[in-house]
Amino acid sequence: RRHVLEASQQLTEIINSETSAEIPEPSGEAEPADEEDSALHCLWVDKFTPRCYMELLSDDYTNRCLLKWLKLWDTVVFGKEKVAKKTKPSVEAHPPFNQPKEQQNKWKTKLQLTEEILEAELDQHKRPKYKVALLCGPPGLGKTTLAHVIAKHAGYNAVEMNASDDRSPEVFKTRIEAATQMKSVLGANEKPNCLIIDEIDGAPAASINILLNIIHRKDAEGEAAAGAGRRRRREGGLLLRPIICICNDQ
């Protein structure tokens, strides 16, 4: 084993010396070389992890539902108005087999019914009724990867925190408020944050209560505030960023 380690170390030094002796590439082609060098030293699970939505291998129904829920925040976060879906007049004028509406819903897919339920349940601030999405399943299923890819696909900056590490409720509250209320100052084109809380099943009950208070109590404060002068304070008290929680044991 010692001889093998020494031989591998010598080979590594030879490769490094040959690489450093080569003529450096132009600055425009330096980035791919850096990416290749970093790819050689990273784990396979990181090297081949999905980078975009189409590379996800997890359940398509779960992927689309989570993306649909995240896109419902566009009005609040990005100021985008919801685009009304165009319905075919022929279908409205002549329903299939002249069936009542209840029987027509039977022909809709599970995803279509879920989308209609999500879109119908928006509060007075144009936010989804459910402010937190919960991904649960056994380890290795791709929950964290799904959350990061979906957040990036929807135009967010994914901010991840581990609920099991932050055992103090005060630290837990500070990190949640920092991620959901403060803007990123890294770069001119900063993106809004999407908070991803991993291992939420390992958080103490006090931290869970703090999360619930941030979701519900501040809604009541926003409804109680009145007048144009208090609008900034009212909006600051509301939860205006999506939160995705991940757990193994529901």
Automatic annotation (TrEMBL):
Positions of the AAA+ ATPase domain: 129-241
Alphabetized GO MF terms: ATP binding; ATP hydrolysis activity; DNA binding
Region of interest called Disordered, as start-end residue ranges on this chain: 87-106
Compartment(s) where it occurs, according to its Swiss-Prot or TrEMBL record: Nucleus
Keyword Metal-binding: no
Gene Ontology CC annotations of this record: nucleus
GO biological process: DNA replication
Protein name: CTF18 protein
Lineage: Eukaryota, Metazoa, Chordata, Craniata, Vertebrata
Recorded name of the encoding gene: Chtf18
